Amino acid sequence: MTKNLSKAWHRFFLEPIAPHSLAVMRIALGGTLIALWLRYLPHVDVFFSNQGLALPYWEPQAGSLSILLTHPAFGIALMLYGLLLIASIGILLGWHFRFCSALAALMLVYFGLLSFHNFLASWGRLLFFTLMILGMSGADKTYSLRMRRKKESWSAWEAVPAWPQRIIAIQITMTYLGVGLQKAYLPDWQSGEILAFAFVNGWSTPLAHSIAQWNLPMVFYDSAVITVKVLHGLLPIGLWIPRYQRWCFLAGAMFHIGVTLIMGMWWFLLLIPLYAAFVDLKRPNSCA
C-alpha cells in the first residue's frame, strides 16, 4: 500500500504534463498585472515617491534596509514602476519568463514595503503566490515568444513537471475552503444583512445602487448568502471531479463576475483562468 501511495504521489506531482494550462494562467497573470499597473499609474507620485504621504511597512531606520523603506524622487519611482510594466509584459508574452517573474516579484515586494501593504488583501497574496509558483514552472513552454523563437511556432510545446500546476490547484482549493469556513461560522454571515449592505456601501457600484432601490425583501438576501455558502462548500470538491468541473467553473465564474458587477472587486477575476490548474489540456505524448 505504501508503495502504491508513493507511486500515486510521484505521478500526481512529478509526472510530465503539457504546459498549456500553465500557459493560460501565465497569460492571465500577465494581463492582470498590466491592468493593476494601469490602475495605480496615476498615483505613482502619491504612493511610491517622496511627493506623497510616506506610509512604509516599517519605520525607516539607519542601515542597509533604509533605502527600501524611503520613498525615492518621483523620477526614480516612475522608472522603477516602468520596470514592473516591462516585467508584466514579459510574463504575458513568455519572454525571458523567469527573469521577468523574478523582476516582477522584486518590484511588488519593494512597492509593497512602500505603500501596497495599505491596499493589498487576500487577492494580492493569491496573485503573488501565483507569480512565484508560475515563475518556477515551465509556463513559457507554449503560447510564448520563447517557443516562437525556438521552434518558430507559438503553439509548439514541451512537457513540464506537474507540481507547479498541482500546487496552484491546491491553493485555489484551500482559498475557497477557508473562505467557506469563515462564512459558515462568522456571526455577520448568519443572515442576509451583510449582503444587503454590500449593495449600498463604499465598494458598491452604480449597478448595485440601482438594485438596492428595488427594495428586495430580506429573504432574497438570506437566500443569496446561503447560496454563496453552499458554493464555497462545493467548489473545493467539485473542481477536482471531471464530471462536475464544467459546472463548477461556470458557477465560480458567475460568482466572481457578480462580485465585480456589484462591488467592483475585479481583481478576483484572475481565479477564473486559474481554474485551468484543474485540467490537463493536452497529454505529453501529443507533443507538437
What does this protein structure show overall?
- This protein is mainly α.
- The protein has 2 domains: 17-152, no CATH class; 163-280, no CATH class.
- It has 14 helices and 2 strands; from the N terminus they run αβαααααααβαααααα.
- It has helices at residues 2-14, 20-40, 44-48, 66-69, 74-93, 97-114, 122-135, 145-151, 163-185, 193-198, 206-212, 218-238, 242-263, 271-274; strands spanning 16-17, 160-161.
- The protein has a two-stranded antiparallel sheet.
- α5 (74-93) packs antiparallel against α6, α6 (97-114) packs antiparallel against α7 and α7 runs antiparallel to α9 (163-185).
- The protein is globular.
- The model has no long low-confidence stretch (mean pLDDT 91).
List the helices and strands and how they pair.
Layout: H1 2-14, E1 16-17, H2 20-40, H3 44-48, H4 66-69, H5 74-93, H6 97-114, H7 122-135, H8 145-151, E2 160-161, H9 163-185, H10 193-198, H11 206-212, H12 218-238, H13 242-263, H14 271-274
Antiparallel strand pairs: 1-2
Helix pairs in contact: 2-5, 2-7, 5-6, 6-7, 7-9, 9-12, 12-13
